[in-house]
Write the structure tokens for this entry.
Amino acid sequence: MRRLFGSVRARATLGATLVVAVALVAAGAAVLLSLRTNLHGEAGTQAERSARAVATDLAVGRAYGELPLDADDRPVQVVDEEGRLVAASEDLERIGGTGTDAVRPQPAGDEDEGGEGEPEPGEIGERLAYSDGFATIDGETADYRFAALPVETPDRGTLTVYAGAPLSAEHSAVGSALTAMLIGFPLLLVVVAGVTWRVTGRALRPVEGIRREMAAITASADLARRVPVPDTHDEIARLANTTNETLAALETSVERQRRFVADASHELRSPIASLRTQLEVGAAHPELLDLGGAVEDTVRLQRLAADLLLLARLDAGERPAEGRADLAALAREEAAGRAGVTVRAEEAVVVAGSRGQLGRVLANLLDNAQRHARSVVEVSVRREGAWAVVGVADDGEGVPVAERERIFERFVRLDAARSRDDGGAGLGLAIARDVAVRHGGTLTVRDAPAGGALFELRLPESR
């Protein structure tokens, strides 16, 4: 049971059924109340009509014995101002809910004595009152709606006419409506639950397909697979598309990681093998040990390990340390001691971020420029609106347009540069761009005005 109602389909069906049930109960109650009120009002109108008919006869002076009290087989009482029953329906056996429960009239004194002369006419009062009660006529007891109407007469005082109208039509109609609701509402709820179950099942069928495919992808570790996209153009289709985009990004990331590991292994193998060879030769023939070459290979290994560690931290989502760095001062520091490097910088071009990582970017750009320059490398630091811009230009052969994005990939070295490569692993520009992006900036390359390549670093200036 817990598993059943843990599904979206079951919860949607239950929720829809409960909402419809509440709506039906509220609507049914409103219908029954309205029906009862209308029929109650109709019974009151009929009772008023009967009471006015008797009151009219009393107002014109008709004697009690001449009143048409049994015309429509409804209970009628006439009560004087002292509370005595002076006229009533002939077949009335029992009554309740009126001014008196008497059913046998007690004639007034003048009628008992056979008084002479005609009764004087009176006036029907305006105050009309209603009450609910019962009456037994000819042995049958029923509920009635009573109307009480006063009549002012000069010779008989104030008389009150009680006339009833049966509520059997109300009870019958309300009972029939209630029975229909008790039978129809459950059937309607069953229909609603069934339709909701089928509709939600059809709507969620693509979700189950997505779930099964994701489970298969997880089990097989085949990131090239994709989940099915329903042809519905709705939220589920968008979910499937987003899932496929996530799988594509994950596949790219995993493939990139595999290439990274493979390339790193390849790059590490060469200096390690060279260093081992030199050490083995030195161990066997100390006089042949190339100490400078061993140190150079060791430094190369150290730099490569540092680059790999930085890339690993960047891939792990490491955020730049909070701080401020003066790019002009950094450019001068990194250019110091480098032959053929000149710096043109404005004062205090400050950006927010890690001073160490930004210094690493400038160092990598200068290393790359010096490897490819014929004789001159020029560094410029300036402001452009809200941006701080660092340009590193060399007078080499430049970068072909088709290769200007590829050179920022990891372990990429252009063929033209291999013969002049002094030991770089092809990670410097990749690191530089990653750091620039994580600082909210960009790193691009284009032709320098004097020939060669111009690498341009743009970062938001910190005010």
